[in-house]
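S1.2 Input.
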Amino acid sequence: MPRYRRQVAPGSVQHVVSRFIDREFRFEADGARDEYLRRTARALGRTDWCALAFALMGSHVHWVLRAGSRPSAAFVKPLHTGFAGWLNATQRRLGPVFADRHRSITCEGETAAALVAYIHNNPVRAGVVSDPADSAWTSHRAYLGFGTPPAWLDVEQGLRLCGFAATPSGRQAFHSFVLSRVGQPRSLELSGGDLRQRRKDARARTSSPVEIAAPSVLQRHESFEVDTPIVAPEGCVIRQNWRGPPDAILSAAAHAAGTTLSQLCARGRTREVVAARRLALLTWSRYLSRPVVHMARALGIAESSAAELIATAPRSLHEQAAALARALCAT
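S1.3 Output.
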C-alpha cells in the first residue's frame, strides 16, 4: 500500500517523535547522544526547519520544531540515516535502527508551551533525575542559560513560544513553569501514541483517496484533544463512508429545505421540494458514494431525472450536501 504524503503547514510547531526499533535503548552507547546532536547541525542546515527544543531518551527522540516549506523528512531522514550507520558500526550491529517513520503532531499556542515542558520533564518521568535541570539529555539546561547552546537551537524563540523572555528572570520563570508540570503523566495525545489508529479511522470515514494532515493537539484546561484533518488531493471530492438508509438522508434534506418527507416523495415541484430533492441526491451520490438509482427510487423519480437534478445543483448546495454528509458520519 502506498504511503500518504504528510501535510504540514509551514511555520507551524511540530512535535516529531522517533523510536528505536523494538524500543531498544540504543542511546546507551558511549558518546551516542553527542554524535546525534553533532549530526543535527548538518541535517538542519540543509532545510528551512528550526529546532526549538529536544529530549534524547534512551529508546526514543523528541523534537519541537518550527516547520519549514520542505517536508520534515528532509531533516529527519539524513540525520537518522547517517546516525544509524555510525551507531551500528560503533555497536557492531547490522540492520534497521529506527522503527517506522517518525511521527509528527501539530501543537500551537498554549499547547506548544505545554509540549516543551512535557518533553523537558521526560527524564523526570523516566526516573533518571528528580529535577529537569539535572538532565543533560534535553534542551532544558540551554533554556536556563547553563552553558552555550548549539547554534542550531533557537532558545530565544522557544522561550517566547512558551510566553517567557530570554532574561534571567524569564528563564527562572520558565523553569518554575516546567517544575509545575513535573508530575504530569505520559500523554498519549501529545506523544501521538495512537496516531496510526487515528489515521486508520480517518481514512475509514471516507470512500475516496485522501491524505492525512499532521494531527493537531489543542489543550482544553488540563486535558488535550486531537484533531486528525483529512485533505483530498487536488480535484478530488472527499466522500464520507456511510452506509445508512435513504430515509435518513431524505428526512435531513426535507428539514433543511423547510418541507416535509411526504412532500419530498410526492409529485410536487415547489422550490423547497426541488431543493430538498437535489440536496438528498447530492449528499447520497456525490458525498457518500452511494448509487443514484437507490435514492431515485426512494424519491419516486426516474434515474435520468435524478441525474439532471444533480447536474444542475448550485455550488452552495454542494457545500450544504458535504456538510450534511459529515454530520451524518459523525453521529
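S1.4 Remarks. The chain has a mean pLDDT of 86.
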